[in-house]
Amino acid sequence: MKINYSCVVDKHEKFKRQGWVWLNSLIKLGRINPADIWMHCVAGMDIEYVKKCESAGVNIKIIEPFGDKKYCNKIAQMQNKKLRESDIIILMDTDMIMLENFACEFAGIDYIAGKIVDLENPPTEIIDAVFELAGLKKNLPDRLVECASVLTYGANFNGGLYIIPAKYYDIIGEGWQRWALWLLENGKPLYDAGKEAHIDQISFCMTVHEYELAIKYLGRAYNYPLPYDFGEDNKPYILHYHDRVDENFLLAVDYEPTGNIKEAVAQVNDFISGL
Q1: The domain that contains 253 carries what CATH number?
Q2: Per the structure, how many domains does the chain have?
Q3: Which residues contact 268 (CB under 8 A, 6 or more apart)?
Q4: Which of the residues 54, 152, 187, 211 could staple to 183 if both were Cys, CB 3.0 to 4.6 A apart?
Q5: pLDDT at residue 20, rounded to an integer
Q6: Over residues 15-38, mean pLDDT
Q7: What is the pLDDT of residues 172-192, one digit of tens each?
Q8: What range does the domain containing 185 cover?
């Protein structure tokens, strides 16, 4: 089974640092072959950064900004035909750190996998309005969000991690791009609520509903939202730290982690300090 791991790195120094930590975590902690890792750098990325990442053995591809040229840039990686040369494509945000490789659990999957959003973001009534405008039918049952007792649309995944089998690659690539562009022109409910930053997330959800694609929800260990305190928990495969870092780029949260999470944060901070 061949898996390609992919991310998009923007030109801002913060994202460059995230990207460097991300790729090293995949290689050194996840034990992933660098040849299976793709970093898509937005056009204009400085050549020294590109060379540094190439020196780690990963694949680099320069992409043009897409859509809003910010949050939607991640959709542009789906245009990379080389990603098709695998059985599974795992798309990740750069503000994630892999602690353990979980690929063996997804051999032969025929569904799209992701973790539900952490919060009702955007609120369900806004997604209702978007679907109505688009003439889309809701084809999945609602799902409880991760960190609150409220429902959201099925397949409203946290955009930090998508696991896509090759059979769905073209469908997702086409639909995700099309709906994102549509929302940029027609997503008034999102704009009115100040939720346009979620266009990439909602357009992915819309694609899954439009084509009635098979999905599976992942537990938070696969996309652990570090900003939230769940107390004692299972050891995460991936920490999604968002902006929870200090001036030295070490993980920092406003609660006292316990058990496996405390150990994971300590492990990551030791790892980052050694880069």
Answers
A1: 3.90.550.10
A2: 1
A3: 25, 97, 99, 239, 251
A4: 187
A5: 98
A6: 98
A7: 999 999 999 999 999 999 999
A8: 3-273
Alpha-carbon distance of 60 to 23, in angstroms, equals 11
d(CA 187, CA 182): 7
The pair of structure tokens assigned to 27 is 């290689």
Q: How confident is the model at residue 23 (pLDDT cuts 50, 70, 90)?
A: very high
The mean pLDDT of the chain is 97
> Beta strands 59-63 and 37-42: pairing type?
parallel
